[in-house]
């Protein structure tokens, strides 16, 4: 250790004071933090800036770029498929996440109660879908949402005397299938977050409620849910962002063609860029998506601030 | 502007490097297996080096070609060459090639391009060598005319690649189902029974009435077969969309829709679980598919002699096959060309056929005794190679155009709409609108 320190202190005198101690420290510090900034510039900042630039060009990735002004934006705004993709993103987002919050809270409540045995086993099991390979998920749900009469989904429907549906073609069935996959994959993750939240709720509150004769549903409604508010907000935020980025599920369920009934915004821009090699319109769609996300995030923040304020007042 | 491009190139290179390094590790430890369990997107490249000559050619291929054996043979005769063969999944292969061409750096000396992607890369113009500059015109006679035309640009002034294998389509059929309907199931008789598309439809009705079974697996393959018999499909040779005025395509669509609505063709989506299962349980009688489908059928119906092969009604089509191209970045274009010319010569194509079932694109092979004598017990001991070669010679040349695949996907979507109950005319119009927007992008 010692010689290194010696060597270090010696260098400035040798170099004749070109580097002051302060500058040297600064340089060292910047060098230490530079890996992140270098990687971020290459893989984060540059693609983002380039995407803005690209949205004003017509480019297929191979031939020279051609400046087209606002044409790409005009194009996507006259494309009914683009509006379908926005609508689908919202619909699937709501259909996939709202049930997650309700079911997640109920599951967490069950796991948290003293009545359930093998609690750790159940906790692990419920988290498993989150870490399951998405390819395996696709195969399993391909069987469940199979167009044939013997597909699991259609079999269940037949028990209620409902005709078979074509899960990958019809308007609502496509959305139901995709949101089910989203629900299945994320409900465990959110349950664990809710569970963590519930464990921070003091036991005394429940004990006091029980003494006062509150039923289980009253306990959930009047103690658990209000105390979980910050956790619910966290889940709503992450789920909102997640649903705007929804891509893998529609792609593996619908294939590269990505039918209009199930295409999401990210899937739309991916298809433009990597199936149709139209990087200009893909970038334009990405920028519109960017603006929508900014708007929704602002809305989210506004709502959070309001909730935070009422809390302080009460 | 050019600074931007340079930065972009550096970025892409970085990604490629990371990918390439991963691939090397995999090849060293497992030879392409996924024992480390992170096969989430299958971005695997297996690398093998041959020879220690000073001129190294990097060769990107996909699929199971068996070229390693041929390369060793070549290296033995040309000790100054060494070849670095990198095999990856077909889509990855094309994506990586696209990225490196786009970035202007990182492309191999020789790249295999599938027929479906050839127009996409032709748009890159100068990024590939025109093989006519190396004397490819001399070997033109080696190959089937329609395959050569695919490698050529529309004005025939450039050749992008030398053809390796092709996928001529024939009619696979189940002998037991044909017999159940009361007909002779020999290849000649079945070919006679369904020699025209009208016969095909009539037999489909009869089969359905007698046995309740369906004539074919799904709409895809019937439509593809009809489509591939047309000399002009979605685009003309100037790259203009001619779908609207093409009565042949509309006829192919209507023909398939009629069979679909009459319940005469199945609803087994291509590559779905029930489609594979259907090959084994005889729920459909025929499958209009290319030579390489033999392996798929063999995997799904282990019993020999159940499936057989004959010619399809009114001609044949082509599905699949590849070309060997030389990106212009290479520093050893001459050597690369010499190698691919050797590799695609009839003698080597015969070896690739006998070894790995790559169906030759060189008609000279069709007259070679080993080829003619090739029989397959699985398909009832008939000379399968000859049937495929007849199909290969019946294929009509067609210009597919850059957006062939996305356009074709939209037509298939129209069939799905019809299957879900949409009016066929409405579905066709809908597909047409979507196609117009794809081309306008």
Automatic annotation (TrEMBL), chain A:
Membrane topology summary: Multi-pass membrane protein
Pfam families: BPD_transp_1
Subcellular location: Cell membrane
TM region positions: 27-54, 90-112, 124-145, 176-196, 231-254, 274-303
Keyword GTP-binding annotated: no
Keywords noted in UniProt: Cell membrane, Membrane, Transmembrane, Transmembrane helix, Transport
InterPro entries reported in the protein's UniProt record: ABC_transporter_permease (IPR051393), MetI-like (IPR000515), MetI-like_sf (IPR035906)
Primary localisation category: membrane
Keyword Transcription regulation included in the entry's annotation: no
Residues of the ABC transmembrane type-1 domain: 86-300
PROSITE patterns: ABC_TM1 (PS50928)
Domain of life: Bacteria
Similarity annotation: Belongs to the binding-protein-dependent transport system permease family.
Name this polypeptide is given: Sugar ABC transporter permease
Automatic annotation (TrEMBL), chain B:
Composition skew (Acidic residues), residue ranges: 35-47
Region listing for Disordered, in residue ranges: 28-47
Xref: Pfam families: SBP_bac_8
Domain of life: Bacteria
Protein name: ABC transporter substrate-binding protein
The keyword Lyase appears for this protein: no
Keywords: Signal
InterPro entries in the cross-refs: Bact_solute-bd_prot1, SBP
Keyword Signal among record annotations: yes
Residues annotated as signal peptide: 1-20
